[in-house]
Amino acid sequence: MAGSELTEATGVKTACIQSVACAPLSGESPKGGWSNEIRPEDSVHTLIAVHTDIGVTGYGSVFTSGELARAGLAVLEPLFAGENALEPARVSEKLHQNSFWMGRGGTLTHVISGVDIALWDILGKVAGLSVATLLGGRHVERVRPYCSLLMDEPAAMRDVLAQYKAQGYRAFKIGWGPFGRRDDPALDEAIVRIARDEIGDDAALMVDPGGSDAFWPNGLKWALRTADMLAGYSVAWFEEALKPDDLEGFQILRRQSPVPISGGEVLTRRQSFMPFLRDGAFDIVQPDVTKVGGISEQKRIYELAETFGVQYVGHGWNTALGLAADLQMAAAFPNTDYVEYIGGSAYVDGILAAPFALDNEGYLPIPNKPGLGVQLDRERVAKVTRDVDVLRLT
Ligand SMILES: [Mg+2]
């Protein structure tokens, strides 16, 4: 492709991709609640930078390790080199279509997600419009974040919840940890009871046992019994109560559960979501923009969900850029009630020039600046990656 061209009428028409770089985050990786727990030095989230020949760089985020991100970019490089960064959906689809045989749905789909987010960021910066505007328009200017916290012994839970409640959150998801893993329904209920008691009756409470954990021990009968218990505490949704691929189990659970059923955070590609949406497996679907294929693919998944009457809540919580993408989509996708916000993560709260801040009603304002509308801070990012230079932050 030729270099960038300018026309008098519309300004920049092309911005050719010169290179795509990645910066693995490590040193402060937050716990996931996994049975094989993440250590702070582990690399599980990676920032992506797409550099163009017009001097505009876009940023994205991938839920995977730096090693896998690097390897994925090396495989994809001949496909994106020289491409027009102002055409995110087409370029991302080109990457998907030409890499099916190399790991469809896995690492390559995760890596394409970060590239796609960065391409939308570039398009917005060049157009002078927010990503939400480019997606079709901004229905809202703020959205409620739910504070996502790991479960713990009941007494410890109370202290953590109190700390975040004091920061202004009005919705809380408690997940993983001991819940469902000790064969102790009384402990499970004690955790939920103390959470509801601490946050009060007017705050939203969601429960996520984490059925995508390795060797998740529970099945449908446990999920049904637990759903009945959760109904007594007005739980807003019961997330990943089963192993993530258990389509039939989720269908039965959704029909019989008194509380809404959610899932989908580990699925990638719209095709994988289709049976769950079409066949009534979820009340709420939670695609992760840093895994599914990026903003281009998440838009398609949202539209499928909306068509089948399934609520959408984004799951891109893992870095400030994932959250920034979720915020733009929350503006553009009608009836998006929440975004996930992990409490206390250095990768969310510690890498922006102007960190996210709740308003006095517990909502997050949705940036209305070009692109994702957020700016990485070089010094702050340098604290959580050895590769800050490749991002070309100023
Ligand atoms: Mg979850």
What is the third-level CATH name, the topology of the largest domain? TIM Barrel
Radius of gyration: 20 Å
**Level of helix content?**
25-40%
* Succession of helices and strands: EEEEEHHHHEHEHEHEHEHEHEHEHEH
Q: Quick one: CATH class of the largest domain?
A: Alpha Beta
SS-based class: alpha/beta
Give the count of structural domains. 2
Profile the largest sheet.
Answer: 9 strands, mixed
Task: Estimate what percentage of residues fall within beta strands.
Answer: 15-25%
Average of the residue pLDDT scores? 95
Shape: globular
CATH architecture of the largest domain: Alpha-Beta Barrel
Summarize the structure.
With 394 residues, the chain is of the alpha/beta class. Helix content is 37%, strand content 16%. β10, α9 and β11 form a beta-alpha-beta unit.
